[in-house]
Amino acid sequence: MIIKHRDSREEDIRKLANLLTYRLSPKQRFLIERELQAIKSGTSGEDDAAYYINFYYGDSKRWAVIHDLRIEFNGRVAQIDHILINRIFDIYILESKNFKYGVRITESGEFEVYYRRQYIGIPSPVEQNKRHIELLSRFIEHKGILPRRLGVPIKPRFLNYVLISPRAVIKRPNPKKFDSSNVIKADTLKTIIDENIDKIDTMNSLMALSKFSSFSVVEEFARRLVSFHCTAKIDWEKRFDITTKIKDPMQKRTPTYFCASCKTTISEREARFCWNNPARFGGRAFCRQCQRKIAVT
Question: Would you call 80 helix, strand, or coil by DSSP?
Fold first, then answer.
């Protein structure tokens, strides 16, 4: 069951596109265009992942689905792309990435993307997701929203996965050097979850049964968690240092006027003098020197 859909980024996209109509420095324009592209790419990646998640689990009465949860706690923020919760409180924390040309993972666990004929290092989405899990775990414990068994809160199991577009290429290291098995293509998520369930041994099965809950309990927990969602409010003008002086897109540069005869630059006062005397100047603007020549003529 889908408890929360992804927040729309259309408003942010609209605001950023609108900023590009302002008078900007080359640096400001570059940064805004880069941010706009990042949001569009991120939205595309989340859409890919959300499609497969919703296809398999959106109507399920065994799984609670949360898209785009933003939690603030102790001055820190966790922006989690997708969460899946089942009836034994396995909580899948899913980070979706849109690596257009694929991703390469080194033997030391570093992530690199191919850009302009070379690989560029990027922050590890696996480590990013670990931080999300750490903050979310502390938040849930602090709020005391987990269901209880015999007065003791159920202990959830958090699972960390990074979802890559099915169209992307993943270049993996030797698994003995670095285990990248939690970096998967979005269309294989159900297969991975089914394999995880099959791997539960006898002892773990007993532990799982002790946490087994009705779906109504899972749904209640998920809805309480979503109630703490905080929508991000970004002041884009402040972020890109756009001052009041230049932020009006209707504001134009001071107009430039030219003499209709000699083509030199003239002042607005000179131009208006000519326009206010159409009988002499025929509705055209001239510099003072040319005005005298016309008057003599």
Answer: strand
Q: Containing domain of residue 72, as a range?
A: 2-239
Report which of 79, 69, 92, 81 is spatially closest to residue 218, judged by C-alpha positions: 92
Q: What total number of domains does the chain contain?
A: 2
The pTM assigned to this predicted structure is 0.73
Beta strands in the chain (DSSP E): 2-4, 64-73, 76-85, 90-97, 103-105, 111-115, 118-122, 148-149, 152-153, 157-164, 170-171, 183-185, 257-258, 265-266
- 280: phi then psi, degrees, rounded to nearest 5: -85, -40
Residues 235, 159 share a domain: yes
- Strands (E) located in 167-242: 170-171, 183-185
Residue 175 and residue 96 share a domain: yes
Tens of pLDDT, residues 210-239: 788 899 999 999 999 999 999 888 888 888
Instruction: Label residue 42 exposed, middle or buried (CB < 10 Å: 0-12, 13-18, 19+).
Output: middle
Residue 73 lies in a domain: yes
What does 61-79 look like in DSSP terms, one character per residue?
SS-EEEEEEEEEETTEEEE
Residue position matching structure tokens 């007065």: 151
Same domain, residue pair 290 and 176: no
Q: Are residues 49 and 155 in the same domain?
A: yes
Q: Are residues 155 and 225 in the same domain?
A: yes
Give Cα separations from 4 to 8, 33, 86 (angstroms).
12, 29, 15
Phi-psi region of 68 (alpha: psi -120 to 50; beta: other; left: phi over 0): left
Residues 185-213 have a mean pLDDT of 83
Encoded tokens for 62: 């065994």
